[in-house]
Amino acid sequence: MTATEQAVALAHTAARAASDKLAENIVAFDVSDQLAITDVFVICSAPNDRQVRSIVEEVEDRLREAGAKPVRREGHRQGRWVLLDYTEVVVHVMHTEEREFYALERLWRDCPALALPADVTSGRGR
């Protein structure tokens, strides 16, 4: 089983939104073979709580424009690790320290990485 076209499109939209707000280390994984509850994880990070919230707001705005509504949103108040659940796609926007500590990439390394559009860049090195 692989991620649906809709899930991939939403992941690309989320990654572009994060990129536009200078998110760092943007990656996406097709987790559809491992999890029955979602198809794609998008993971990105930022060096401070304020930027985490800014990325989250942009992702939410862009996915809303694409017709997607989150079924769950956790961690926004703290701004350290915000999880946005859109059923087919789960977006993790993490503070750099949390990302290093929890190492989600290591946990999901057996899942195939999803290719992101060329216009998605990570961080300030544009």
Written description of the protein model:
The chain has one domain: Beta Polymerase, domain 2, CATH 3.30.460.10. The protein is globular. With about 130 residues, it is α+β, with helices and mostly antiparallel strands. It has helices at about 5-20, 50-65, 95-100, 105; strands at about 25-30, 40-45, 70-75, 80-85, 90-95. It has a five-stranded mixed beta sheet.
Main sheet record: 5 strands, mixed
Arrangement of strands in the largest sheet? 1-2-5-4-3
- The third-level CATH topology is Beta Polymerase, domain 2
CATH homologous superfamily designation:
Beta Polymerase, domain 2
What proportion of the residues form beta strands (DSSP E)? 15-25%
What is the count of structural domains? 1
Computed CA radius of gyration, to the nearest angstrom: 13 Å
* Alpha-carbon distance between the two ends: 35 Å
Order of helices and strands: HEEHEEEHH
Structural class: alpha+beta
CATH architecture: 2-Layer Sandwich
Average pLDDT works out at: 93
Helix content: 25-40%
Poorly predicted runs are none
Number of strands: 5
Number of helices: 4
CATH class: Alpha Beta
What best-fitting shape do the alpha-carbon axes yield? globular
